[in-house]
Amino acid sequence: MDCLFCKIVEGSIPSQKVFENERILVFRDIQPAAPVHVLIIPKKHIASMNEVQEEDLPLIAEMHQVAQQVAKDLGVNESGYRLINNCGPDSGQAVHHIHYHLLGGAKLGALTGISDSHA
Q1: What are the structural domain ranges in the chain?
Q2: pTM to 2 decimals?
Q3: What is the assigned CATH class of domain 4-118?
Q4: Of 37, 97, 99, 101, which residue is the catalytic one?
């Protein structure tokens, strides 16, 4: 498989890890769009939100729980943060491995979205 995020999970591409457990990895975005900008990915390859199956729902729920914890750990849970999932070409999804961008640390204003060119 030629998936950038799968290569990060396996360790063949380095990342700045913020959180990791058996199912989820969180790492810093290499082109941050905010003072805090991390990516939350499942270690299981799922191409996009459109590919999520019923058996994946606990994993998606866990990703949201991890987002809450990471926001707290990075000090943006009280001031606020944005959680973004791009799905499909018109959204800007370029990495076909489901993920969330967690952004915070500043007033984010009226962003229309974050493309995966920031990943």
Answers
A1: 4-118
A2: 0.91
A3: alpha beta
A4: 99
